[in-house]
Design a protein that fits this description.
The protein is an alpha/beta fold. The chain has helices spanning 26-39, 52-62, 100-109, 120-132, 139-152, 199-205, 251-258, and strands spanning 17-22, 43-49, 66-70, 91-97, 112-116, 157-162, 165-170, 174-180, 183-188, 192-195, 212-216, 219-222, 226-230, 235-238, 243-245. The chain has 2 domains: 17-152, Rossmann fold (3-Layer(aba) Sandwich); 169-258, LytTr DNA-binding domain (OB fold (Dihydrolipoamide Acetyltransferase, E2P)).
């Protein structure tokens, strides 16, 4: 009788993500450490730091893949870490208490963030993005944009991803944003950018800027590029030959906005 020979199947090892955690509050450090241990086994926590100075030393020593970084700390804000390195060659996930303006700044700069108290699913999703796609290109620019927006409380640029390429786009260059199914086309004089965000995302992001107006379910326009509009055809002529639709439900709101 033949004996079955055992077959050894070696499963691929999941590469560990080396991480450092930076927060000035000990309780916050402990909470995030416990969440990582329970829900993100792919993360290997190498060090916990209470300020930027200690974090810089730990990063230089450990060479982590990922840094969880509190945005509000004494002496240096989290985004100022960019000033301590010639090149940022690690991913950053910012951690912050809820602040509506800070959240908008993170969205503007296209950096990942977690709100305290930390949502477990959002934590797992943020870590998964690091595992799936580590993107170091233009990281310093995104961090600089974040710092500028938080410091000056002014929106002047936005970070977008177009076909895998990162762009820092001046808001003053945006003529209109057009919804196309699950993505948007950002129209500028130089080119069109295709972005995998819906129009609601940009409407919320640009809400503080009165020059951007939602005029249709598929259109946000920059009124600075307005040339003329047709009341009968419900269309808006913009620079660069761009023609936006005007919803009859948005008509009175649009007319009031362009008179300001």
């Amino acid at each position: 009788m033949k004996q079955n020979k055992g077959i050894n199947i070696s499963l691929p090892q999941v590469k560990k993500i080396k991480a450092i955690l930076v927060d000035d509050e000990e309780s916050a450090r402990d909470v995030l450490q416990n969440l990582l241990l329970r829900f993100c086994p792919e993360v290997e926590l190498l060090a916990k730091c209470e300020n930027i100075t200690a974090a810089v030393e730990a990063i230089e020593k450990e060479q982590p893949d990922l840094v969880f970084l509190d945005i509000e700390m004494p002496n240096y804000a989290g985004y100022e870490i960019v000033n301590f390195f010639k090149q940022i060659n690690f991913d950053i996930i910012f951690v912050t208490a809820y602040n509506q303006y800070a959240v908008r700044a993170f969205e503007i700069a296209a950096v990942d963030y977690l709100l305290k108290p930390i949502d477990i699913q959002r934590l797992k999703n943020a870590v998964a993005r690091v595992v799936q796609h580590r993107d170091m290109e233009q990281q310093a620019q995104r961090l600089s944009l974040l710092g500028s927006t938080l410091q000056h409380k002014q929106m002047e640029n936005i970070a977008i991803s177009d076909k895998g390429q990162q762009h820092i786009l001046p808001l003053e260059h945006i003529i209109a944003i057009e919804a196309q199914e699950s993505y948007c086309i950002i129209h500028t004089a130089a080119r069109q950018h295709i972005v995998s965000k819906n129009l609601k995302h940009f409407e919320k992001l640009l809400e503080p800027l009165p020059r951007f107006i939602r005029v249709h379910k598929s259109w946000i326009i920059n009124k600075q590029f307005l040339q003329h509009y047709s009341k009968s055809e419900l269309t808006i002529q913009l620079s660069n030959g761009i023609v936006s639709k005007l919803s009859k439900y948005k008509k009175s709101e649009f007319e009031a906005a362009i008179l300001v």
